[in-house]
Amino acid sequence: MLTQGTRPGNGTLCYRAGGTGRAVTYRMTVPDVTSPGVLRLGRRSFGPGQLVIMAGAAGPVPGARGSGWDEAAAMDRVHAVVADGADIVDLGGGPAGAGMLGAGPAGAGMLGGGPAGAEEIRWAVPFVAAVRAAYPDLVIGVGAWRYETARELCAAGADLLHDSGERLAQVAAEYGAGLVCGNADRAVARGVEPERVLIDAGPGTRPSPEATRRLEDMVAAGWPVLVPVPGPSRDGGRAGGLAATAVWAWLGVRVFRADQVRNTRRVLDMVSAIRGDRPPARAVRGLA
Fold first, then answer.
1. N or C: which end of the chain has fewer CB within 10 A?
2. Higher model confidence: residue 20 or residue 288?
3. Architecture of domain 33-275 in CATH?
4. Which sequence spans correspond to the domains of the chain?
5. Full DSSP string of the chain
């Protein structure tokens, strides 16, 4: 039986394995993840030890007539990921592709590829407004290459922009929105509030010692880091991606972009409980 003991001030978390035999105490080093401040996105505030899921799904929502767009299906997907435990719903965008809201490869966000310019505003903005009406406290992330589109989306209820186009930091500053970017200092210099800046580790981050060291360096810089949960591998299925998620969360990564929200939520909750940031879902008291 494994029971949690004390958490000394030196960053060590103690566990005791008991039972019929001799009790053995295990000590695991807990990294200092309290240095980054609170992350504020929309109406939500995420504390330093709180692990956050950004939900996105690859590929466009099939249209009933082959148009590539089905608003009812898209909303159903929003309902599903929220029910599974998503804190942020990403409706499209990011450096890997503009997704639903601009000129870029389809599949970067929840809705895949979309039209441009005024047409983009005409159909994307009402959907953001509909999601906001359904979930007043949900953090809504969007991507847009165009300044005008970004302003319309924020006015409709978007809380988080991907810095994938010109002057988007200016829009985030104007509307008090968050910004996913690669350079926090530049974002702050352009007026984005520091507690609303999120550093993107990049869509190509894969489980490896090199990636882990790079993420450690990014975490050490003090800004909240966003990393994609790796997809299934040829030999390990999804287990490898979830294992990497646990390691990266332990090291201090705070936001995870996930397609498999429910499984990712379970992994992150377990890490939080082991690290002592939240009580376990089921506590078992061991007798020495």
1. C
2. 288
3. Alpha-Beta Barrel (3.20)
4. 1-30, 33-275
5. -EEE----TTSEEEEEE-SSS--EEEEEE-----SS--EEETTEEE-TT--EEEE--SSPPPPTTSSS--HHHHHHHHHHHHHHT-SEEE-S-STT--GGGSSS-TTSSSS-----HHHHHHHHHHHHHHHHHH-TT-EEEEE-SSHHHHHHHHHHT--EEE--STTHHHHHHHHT-EEEES-HHHHHHTT--GGGEEEE--TT--SSHHHHHHHHHHHHTTS-EEEEPP--BTTTBTHHHHHHHHHHHHHT--EEEESSHHHHHHHHHHHHHHHTSS--SS--PPP-
